[in-house]
Amino acid sequence: MREESMSESQINLRETHIVGSHTHEQIVGKQACQALSLHRIGLVGMSQARPPFRFERPRPFNSQLLLCLEGWGMILVDGEWQRCPPGTAYLTPPGVAHAYRAVEERPWSVCWVAYDDSLEQASIGGESTRQVQVDPQPLAAVIAGLYREYIGQAEPAAMQQWAELIALYAQRIIGPERQERRLQQLWEHVNQDISHDWSNEALANQLGISSEQLRRLCLQQLGESPMKYLTLLRMRRAMALLSSDSYSVEQVAMRIGYHNAFAFSTAFKRAAGVSPSAYRDQMRKSKG
């Protein structure tokens, strides 16, 4: 259903971020949940929005997914204001103007994922905003789960699992799957042998293409170079291994392909914000 139709040239957007005192929000950022950053997610949250809740971004730097759970609000699609009812996901790529607002006193209940990406490495592609109809409950449930963990025990291992599910369910909504099947198969193979001494050439050989072709393919499909994406996979595995006391930091490093514990610790701190030892200590304290 279209509302307040007008041409894009007639809509003069200006950078506007209004939450308002009548809107209640539950938010978790990458500073609180370091695992979100491994999926290039900056913030996730849920909002019970009432007027004057309104956001306008003429040229946003990042991608965002906004999903209506209950009630309805207005979203800008193809230069026209349209109603956003339950089950509607509003997908906005970087560099493309978007806007949304609450219009009724009855709460407009939404959940959202704000990516920490860029135009060159967009999590949501395309040259226009779009809306798709989906089941809103899976994504809403895992965002709520992460928030409850955050305000409760805040156990890093548990928060990591919630972050993985948020990234998965968000990607299903954004779909179709952005990765080519051959690229997906490559990383599945790599994940099964993550400790192997992978190089650009070795990865490219798996697909029978040149290193430059693989680099362009990964940048196009993943927004990352092959070696940077390999590092992300290794850091995710390291977080899982560090969640128990079964392996020393040196053993974790070896199991994910680092022959130097110092190099591993440096890479882990760059990705997670804390050292492997500090990450493990946080989990021990959260377990009591």
From TrEMBL:
<keyword id="KW-0010">Activator</keyword>
<keyword id="KW-0238">DNA-binding</keyword>
<dbReference type="InterPro" id="IPR003313">
    <property type="entry name" value="AraC-bd"/>
</dbReference>
<protein>
    <submittedName>
        <fullName>AraC family transcriptional regulator</fullName>
    </submittedName>
</protein>
<dbReference type="InterPro" id="IPR050204">
    <property type="entry name" value="AraC_XylS_family_regulators"/>
</dbReference>
<keyword id="KW-0804">Transcription</keyword>
<feature type="domain" description="HTH araC/xylS-type">
    <location>
        <begin position="184"/>
        <end position="282"/>
    </location>
</feature>
<dbReference type="Pfam" id="PF02311">
    <property type="entry name" value="AraC_binding"/>
</dbReference>
<dbReference type="InterPro" id="IPR037923">
    <property type="entry name" value="HTH-like"/>
</dbReference>
<dbReference type="InterPro" id="IPR018060">
    <property type="entry name" value="HTH_AraC"/>
</dbReference>
<dbReference type="InterPro" id="IPR018062">
    <property type="entry name" value="HTH_AraC-typ_CS"/>
</dbReference>
<dbReference type="GO" id="GO:0003700">
    <property type="term" value="F:DNA-binding transcription factor activity"/>
</dbReference>
<dbReference type="GO" id="GO:0043565">
    <property type="term" value="F:sequence-specific DNA binding"/>
</dbReference>
<dbReference type="InterPro" id="IPR020449">
    <property type="entry name" value="Tscrpt_reg_AraC-type_HTH"/>
</dbReference>
<dbReference type="InterPro" id="IPR014710">
    <property type="entry name" value="RmlC-like_jellyroll"/>
</dbReference>
<dbReference type="Pfam" id="PF12833">
    <property type="entry name" value="HTH_18"/>
</dbReference>
<dbReference type="InterPro" id="IPR009057">
    <property type="entry name" value="Homeodomain-like_sf"/>
</dbReference>
<keyword id="KW-0805">Transcription regulation</keyword>
